[in-house]
Amino acid sequence: MEIITSKENKKIKSARQLLTRKGRKQSGNYLIEGFHLLEEALKAKAELVEIFVSTDKIEKVPAGLSFIAVSADVLRSLASSDTPQGIVAIVKKMEADDFEMGKVLILEDVQDPGNVGTMIRTADAAGFDAVFTTNASADIYSPKVMRAMQGSHFHLAVVDGVTFENLVGFVRDAGLELLVSTLSKNSINYKAVKMDRFALVMGNEGNGVSDFAVKNADQLVHIEMPGQAESLNVAVAAGILMFAL
């Protein structure tokens, strides 16, 4: 068995470019790390372009799966975590074509990768149909978002890099009501909301939702807080709203 031991190998250098947003955008591919995400990719029938496995983890590779053996040092150069799990795969981005539009989540300029990944994972757990992210949000294919999502992007439609203005038109065409989360004198307690089909908008960590979102909302909604904290983490707030709604 041939083993790649040089980080300057052409395939390794090409794969390493996918650690950057520019590299992912140019190639249409992204990296996943770990056997759990590999299993989720296989279940979703995602297109695996290449699989790199460190020599000490070869016995864990599913039978019949083609892979390239690499040294532990080479594998570490492709991994983003402090303790690599011994496998990194290149995955082709999946286009979200036909999907249900009953309950969707819109992330408007949410910039923290952990928040983005957590909200997509929560949307998956809460049975939402799709998640849309605006072009100023964290890249859903970045390693940090991947770790937080834990493969949920394989379970529901995820559409990234869309302008909010276009999203408003899209959800209107789908017959959804726009439910915007914001602390406002015109917002109502989420417990009073009665909607079957809607798009829930969560805003930027520091600035909240935009004026445009508020202006176009069918309903503004908030979570009442009996304590003294000024606000909730956006991912926590989204989790409360998604499961309640």
UniProtKB/TrEMBL annotation:
SUPFAM superfamilies: alpha/beta knot, L30e-like. Gene3D superfamilies: 3.30.1330.30, 3.40.1280.10. The keyword Protease does not apply. The keyword Zinc-finger does not apply. It holds the Pfam family MRM3-like_sub_bind. InterPro entries: Alpha/beta_knot_MTases (IPR029028), MRM3-like_sub_bind (IPR053888), Ribosomal_eL30-like_sf (IPR029064), rRNA_Methyltransferase (IPR051259), SpoU_MeTrfase (IPR001537), SpoU_subst-bd (IPR013123), tRNA_m1G_MTases_N (IPR029026). Keywords: Methyltransferase, Transferase. It comes from the Bacteria. GO terms for molecular function: RNA binding; RNA methyltransferase activity. SMART domains: SpoU_sub_bind. One of its GO terms (cellular component) is cytoplasm. Residues 31-97 form the RNA 2-O ribose methyltransferase substrate binding domain. Belongs to the class IV-like SAM-binding methyltransferase superfamily. RNA methyltransferase TrmH family. This is RNA methyltransferase. It comes from Lactococcus hircilactis.
